[in-house]
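Quick one, probably user error.
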């Protein structure tokens, strides 16, 4: 996927119009459209501006893969993580493993903090 296509997909995911992004970049809609269609090269400084408008990092644009789109949504039970149906089972397993590891690390850190607090109270 070309950088322009990635920018377009991310813009659409953010529900932003070409007109809005073009205005923020001080470009015409037609000029901005050329970025998304790949008709013009996108210098890094312009990519930084686009990332700022999309409220993401430049790396997120560069590494964007539409087959691995994650949406955080609020529902009645709290936050839910919805994984795009294009995500492979191996990718899902990898993310589940990473989440479990992070949970374990959080618990370890909580325990360590509590132990340190207890030590400081006993002094």
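Nope, works fine. Designed sequence:
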């Amino acid at each position: 996927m070309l950088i322009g296509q990635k920018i377009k997909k991310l813009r659409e995911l953010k529900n932003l119009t070409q007109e809005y992004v073009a205005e923020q970049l001080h470009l015409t809609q037609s000029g901005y459209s050329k970025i998304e269609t790949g008709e013009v090269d996108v210098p890094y400084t312009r990519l930084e501006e686009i990332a700022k408008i999309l409220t993401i990092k430049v790396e997120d644009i560069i590494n964007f893969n539409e087959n691995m789109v994650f949406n955080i949504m609020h529902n009645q039970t709290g936050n839910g993580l919805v994984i795009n149906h294009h995500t492979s089972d191996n990718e899902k397993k990898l993310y589940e493993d990473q989440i479990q590891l992070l949970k374990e690390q959080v618990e370890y850190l909580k325990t360590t903090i509590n132990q340190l607090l207890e030590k400081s109270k006993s002094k």
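Residues 71-85 have pLDDT under 50 and may be disordered.
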